[in-house]
Amino acid sequence: xxxxxxxQGGVPIYLQVMQQIKYLVASGRLxxxxxxxxxxxxxxxxxxxxxxxxxxxxxxxxxxxxxxxxTAGTFVAxxxxxxxxxxxxxxxxxxxxxxxxxxxxxxxxLDEVLKFVEQSELxxxxxxxxxxx
Amino acid sequence: xxxxxxxQGGVPIYLQVMQQIKYLVASGRLxxxxxxxxxxxxxxxxxxxxxxxxxxxxxxxxxxxxxxxxTAGTFVAxxxxxxxxxxxxxxxxxxxxxxxxxxxxxxxxLDEVLKFVEQSELxxxxxxxxxxx
DNA sequence: ATTACTGTATCGATCTATTGATACAGTTCT
DNA sequence: AGAACTGTATCAATAGATCGATACAGTAAT
Lengths: 133, 133
What we know:
Chain A has 133 residues and is mainly α.
C-alpha cells in the first residue's frame, strides 16, 4: 500500500496515516473487504512505532472506515458510517460552511467552489445511498 | 461585537476567536475598514488574557483577514489574501477534496454536497474578483 | 508633561498530545 | 506444543501548544 509520511511539518503521523487511508477508500483504490497491512508490517515500512499505526487503525475503526477482526487483521469496512443521518447532515453543513468561509477569504466565489467540487477526481463515487431516507 | 467562547470543548480560545471573526467577515457582518475591538477590550469582555486575543489578531493579520495600524487599532483588511492565485487554487482544491472524502465517508453523494454548497447562508457573498485572471 | 489608549515582547507554568519501549493475549498453522 | 502471526494494554519521556503575569514602546489628546 502506497503511504508516504512526512516526519517534518507538524502533522502527527497517525493523522497522516488516517487521512491517506481515508483517501484511498474514498477514491475506490481500497475496496470494502480489502485487507490492510498488519500494524507491525506498516509500522516497519514507515519506520514508526507500532503504537502509532495501532492508533490510526483504532480511530479509523471508530470512524467506521475500517473493521478489525481480532486475530485476522484489519479490513476496509462494508457500510458507511453508523452515525444518525441528522448528525451527519449537521457535520456536513459545518464542513461546507468552513470551506466556503475559507474560499471567500481567499477571494473565490461560489461558482468557483462549485466548479472544483464538480471537477474533483473523487467525483466517480457512487451517490449516497440515503438521498431520500 | 458578538463573540462567544466555550472554555470547555478543547478548542483553543485564540482559534475560536479567529474562526468567529472569519465568519463575521465572510458573511459581511464585518466590512472592510471596520474597526475591531481593541485587544484589551475584547480580552476583558471574554475574560481571557490579552495575549490570547493578541495572538488571534496576529494570526488573522498573517492570514490577510485583518490589518493592524500601529497605534490606532485593528481593522478588517481591504483586499483578499495576498497569496498567489496558484497557491490559492492549490489550497482550495485540497480543501474541496478533504470535504468530499469526508462526505463520501459519511455516505453522502456529490449531488448532496453541491446542494449544501448552493444553499449555504454564506452564498450571498460577492463572486470572486479573479474568476478570469 | 501627563494620562490614556493602541499593539508588542518576554518569560514561565501547565497541560496535553504524540510517540516509543515493552509486555500481554488470542488464533492459526506446522 | 510451539512458532508465527494477529491486535491490545500500560507506562514513561518528550515535545509542543496554550495561556497568563507583567513590562515595554509608541501615539494622541488633555
